[in-house]
Amino acid sequence: MNVVMVGTGYVGLVSGACFSEFGVKVTCVDKDNERIEKLQKGIMPIYEPGLEELVARNTSSGRLNFTNNLAEAVRNADIVFIAVGTPSRRGDGYADLTYVYEAAREIAPNLNGYTVVVNKSTVPVGTARHVRKIIANENPQADFDVASNPEFLREGSAINDFMRPDRVVIGVESERAMAVLKELYRPLYLIETPMVITNLETAELIKYASNAFLATKISFINEISNLCEAVGANVKDVARGMGLDKRIGPKFLHAGPGFGGSCFPKDTQALIKMFHDNNLTARIVEAVIQVNNAQKSWMVKKICEALKPSEYGKIVAFFGLTFKPQTDDVREAPSLTIIPALQEKGIKIRATDPKGISEAKKVLNDVEYFDDPYDAAKEVDAIVIMTEWNEYRALDLKKLKGLMKGNAFIDLRNVYEPQKVRSLGFSYTGVGVI
Ligand code: NAD
User: Cis peptide leading into 309, omega within 30 of 0?
Assistant: First the structure.
């Protein structure tokens, strides 16, 4: 079986490499020549734990290869996945489907023999049908089916998520396409992974509904954390007390600076647009976004409060910039909102991050970067724990205190015990903890 993956970003590259690990032949295509050249040399364009080894193993076995020649790859394919970006369309929050449709137009003339064209990108309801229309218009002779197979992997644990998913969702309309995709996912059937087989629209919506629900859990606990601060309750214990209820579950109940990343912000926006297009209102999802924006502003206030009497000219070191640990991805990270807001108030920013500095440099201005957190802490007035990297979970606090000018320790991930940090002479600020 020959699989082609169009797009070698976080999803395309991980999925392509994992399918090759299943034993099928995979060709990953990208129009970014530099990315392909790097991949051909074994250099990963993204940071994802275990990916380099997985790619190396499968390229050397001949099952995985990289090309910018989409036409040739598609001509030999049984299955073509579209795994290109679907960012927010500038200005209006709709998912930008330019890349998906462009990929469909490029795929169409090269289809050769029966092929299943599968949307793996997160796309609004109706997109798979539109892709079918594009391909049929461009190549009326093509023998193909479309399918929807949304991806649920998380950056930072993407390989394990792909190899041992909670479920696989497949939207199809023909038995033939179903049989091809079942064959591809056979290794997951063997480990009894639940398969949700449904129509195209349902599969597309499952992805948005799942992401919006997870974002809702985050905004919910963040809003509760605001009340905790007002009434002297501890949000960590509230979350634990809630999460032990199996109907609720403990995941995604960590109060913090708000959600970010390449998915939740754009997917919640796009879901709202789908409601609007159908003359409906997404009241809950709208509130989720409002709470998330307010939470980021609240973090700015907290940091300024900790720097009092005046924040102007003060220096703050950010520990972590990525939207979560174990990735270099800073897309929509809360740090990208919080840091510029502080800079506007005349605060100087230093920052460190185990993997995210080069991506952050592309989008943040006037930040001084350090590889070592202890270098970043020299002469600063405050430290902000922005991302809960393991590297920042057991810092030598005494050493940090000795290096700093001020004593503010602002823990936006509630990693540390407030009493312990205060006992070392810091002023401690967490989120929803006292
Ligand atoms: P990305 O931006 O990291 O990568 C997209 C890649 O597609 C880029 O390398 C780009 O050059 C390439 N590309 C675009 N048009 C192309 C074309 N016509 N031909 C060949 N290559 C093309 O995107 P991503 O983060 O991997 O996300 C891809 C999709 O998967 C999105 O819809 C996203 O919402 C969804 N998704 C992402 C994640 C995640 O954690 N990143 C998880 C689940 C789902």
Answer: yes
Question: Phi and psi for 193 in degrees, rounded to 5?
Answer: -70, 130
Helix (H) or strand (E) segment spanning residue 350: strand 348-352
Specify the pLDDT at position 91.
78
For the chain, the farthest-separated pair of C-alpha atoms sits apart, in whole angstroms, at 74
Which amino acid residue places its CA nearest to atom 34 of ligand 1?
A: 122
Please, are residues 162 and 22 in contact by the beta-carbon 8 Å criterion?
no
Q: Which residue has the tokens 């220096």?
A: 315
Asked if pLDDT for residue 243 goes beyond 90, the answer is yes
Task: Say which residue the tokens 């998906």 belong to.
Answer: 100
Quote the CA–CA distance of 249 and 170 in Å, as a whole number: 26
Residue 410: phi and psi, rounded to 5, are -115, 110
Using CA atoms of 296, 299, 303, 308 in order, give the dihedral in degrees to the nearest 10: 110
End-to-end, the C-alpha distance of the chain in Å comes to: 58
Q: Which of 18, 28, 228, 263 is catalytic?
A: 263
- Is 304 catalytic? The answer is no
Q: How far apart are CA 388 and CA 63, in angstroms?
A: 36
280 half-sphere exposure, CB direction, 13 A CA radius? 10
pLDDT tens digits, one per residue of 299-311: 999 999 999 999 9
Mutate-to-test residue for ligand 1 from 4, 10, 94, 153, highest number of ligand atoms within 8 A of CB: 10
Span 150-166, average pLDDT: 97
Integer angstrom CA distances of residue 45 from 66, 261, 328, 340 = 13, 17, 10, 27
8 A C-beta contact, residue 231 and residue 54: no
Distance 25 CA to ligand 1 centre (A): 20
Residues in the chain: 434
8-58 pLDDT tens trace:
999 999 999 999 999 999 999 999 999 999 999 999 999 999 999 999 999
pLDDT of residue 161: 98
Residue nearest atom 1 of ligand 1, based on CA coordinates: 9
| Residue among 30, 35, 143 nearest 81 (CA) | 30
Task: Return the CA Rg of the chain.
Answer: 23
CA 310 from centre of chain = 36
Residue of 4, 15, 33, 84 to mutate, ligand 1, most atoms within 8 A of C-beta: 84
Neighbours of 49 (CB within 10 A): 16
d(CA 35, CA 22): 24
* CB of 385 closer than 8 Å to CB of 415: yes
Contact of 24 with 3, CB cutoff 8 Å: yes
